[in-house]
Amino acid sequence: MRYLDLRAEGFRNLADCRLEFHPEVNWITGANGQGKTNLLEALLYLVSGRSHRLARDEDLVGFDRDHFFLEGSLADEGGQALRFRAACERGGRRRMHLDGEEVSRLADLVGLTGTVVFGPDDVGLVTREPDRRRRFLDYTLAKTDPTYLRDLMAYRRILRQRNALLQARGGGPHLEIWTARLIEHGARLVLARRLNLRVLGEEAARFYRAMGGDGEDLVLTYRSPVQGGTEQAVAASLGARLESLAASESLKKQTLAGPHRDDMGIDIGGRNGRKFASQGQKRSAAVALKLAQAEFLARVRRDRPIVILDDVFSELDELRRERLCRLVGRQYQTFLATPQPEDLNRELFGDLRRFRVEAGRIQPE
Question: Which fold has domain 1-114+305-365?
Fold first, then answer.
């Protein structure tokens, strides 16, 4: 996929604009706080109906405006275009349209486009708590497998209901029914994550080496007390685990086993990356994970994803910057946001389009 154009009105601090994008590299420059990330946020919101910074819809409306409006087109590898539209009034609900038809569920947008985003906070994939890594896996698989998305949505609904029963009555007669449903969908999620992580791990290791891994290997593992190589075996293991934790669940009033408690291990040079890696290693590993995600999406979807890099160069040395640019610039449509023009060596690319952002005004150059 690739973005063709964007029209934005009333979105955050951005001045009303109409932009056309380069099919390969779009370079966005401007001092911090001028609106570079807001432009990237508008691009992502257009195709998902959500802020990648987890902002509320009403916070996306400009201070002196009563609504925001976004409209733009994306084209696939064959040149087939999709027209997206997103709008929200202050205090009102969002409205999403695809090719003129209203989209009633945001889940219907999930599989349409492939986007991979790396921002300054994404080093948290390595350094922070397991929920970040679970979201990374869930996003990757939901974008490529409709069955996984359905299981994930069902699992989350069942988990909320089961936890509500534990909190209200310590379980009750209906707990067994919800436990059986949790096991059914949870087993499929665990098995899909485990199988697909092998492919993701191979790609992440390759990109880590390509970026200059200093001779150390990056290894991803799925960490879960639930065992088994088939759906039936995983279901049996998860069921046994839940049974052994019944007393603890009754006391703590929450579900203590399942894919919502698992983690993705990231080892660098045979050691736990979260605990022992340097800052440079952690950032390189996080970038490698995102590039592996892009390659996974491209392989499964048979359509090149869009890569968005927001201030990714801040903690990378010159060699790693150069290698990263060579890895993404000609393989994907890429949006690069940097505070200073000197952050990017234009000679690493062929043609590109530059956008300068100042106080929300976007000037193509």
Answer: Rossmann fold (3.40.50)
